[in-house]
Amino acid sequence: MDNSMLCENRRRHFALLSVVAVLFLGYGASASAATLCVNPGGKTGCMATISAAVAAASPGDTIEIAPGTYKEDVTIMKAISLVGPQNGRATIDASGMANGIFVNGMAAAPRAGVSNVLISGLTVRNANFEGILLANASDVTLLNNHVVDNNRALDIADGACPGIPAFETNEGDDCGEGIHLMGVAHSSIVDNEVDYNAGGILISDETGRTHDNLISGNHVHDNPFDCGITIASHGPATTVIPTAKVSFGIVHTTVANNVSERNGVELPGAGAGVGIFAPFPGTVAAHNVVIDNVIRNNGLPGVTMHNHAAAPAAAPAVNLNGNMIVGNRISGNAADTADAMTAGPTGINVYSVAPVWGTVISQNVFDDETIDVAFKAPRGQANVHLNNFSTRGVGVENLGTGSVDATDNWWHCPSGPGGKGACATASGPKVMTSPWLHSPFVSGAND
User: Fold this and answer.
1) For the structural domain made of 2-432, what CATH number should be given?
2) pTM here?
3) N or C: which end of the chain has fewer CB within 10 A?
4) At a CB cut-off of 8 Å and minimum separation 6, what does 447 contact?
5) What is the mean pLDDT of residues 295-300?
């Protein structure tokens, strides 16, 4: 399953990557654009540091980076392209520094942000906080980078990250992870490898609304202390926008065709393959899509959705609604923990103390889980259809007083949930299972 699936994911992304490359080649080849070069020692008319080239570049310019190691923290506040040799041999070593690359739209013209940035073909490692941080930016593409061994300032014993900037409001236990988007729109994180950071890729909203971003084709693995890919609505950065509302929100994120594996396994309950979190009143993580990913062997359920504090009558509501989990292969993940605890290894866990509406869980294939889908909410409904459940135990478990429409699933036998033979079961109140499929669901078979 592993090799064929990885190859298939690559093939499915060929057209996407080609489009991205063509767009940026056209962008960099405009009549007014220049190409600058960087190499160790600044030989043959090139600059010796990436930061010097960034300072000298005009919007629209391309900076070509030769193989070598560059010990710096690169800050970008203009529309430029950083292009490495595509073999990972151009390395930003940010040892002792905050970030490897910081696309800083907070320091641009008031509320204007920064846009049209390409970062491609680089290895970024050893930063105290994020390897690559994007803040208040749009139309940014991270393509074919290797982000590894960052979050060096993390004190895991204290769950703290000393010195992290005040505008990062919820990163005490992960230092912002390998790649971090906050207040970012219409950007693409494509075909990167993200490994051995505290956590993998983080999408949050401290400095502005985060929306319409694509996380696709990445291999996110072995990040020990947090999720592989996290969508987490946080409190606002009042140091940046003092009158900010409770949450700007994260909407319309597409997490597609990634492999997220072996994340969050160092501590019990440290991280999921993909996490979607709206933790307290006023936070928004809604209408996001997790589609066609391989999610396996992570330290929490493969896809984990959490809310831990319902809003009182006078407070803004929690919005964890309208998220879709479709077409994923989910296997070998761990149980959920603490207040969201599940009874065993779980594929998908949706847990909320506030109502949750419009959750769609469809066309997923489960294997090696004790519970394939768990749902717990005081009101609301999960729509669970066309999934292929595994044989180890419970296909769908409703742990709350909301409801689950679990019709038209394959329960691993023709006789349906709890039937004779190796059938998965349904558990809990308000779970509707009939009719069910009499053979495994195959995408496109009924077209």
Assistant:
1) 2.160.20
2) 0.92
3) C
4) none
5) 98
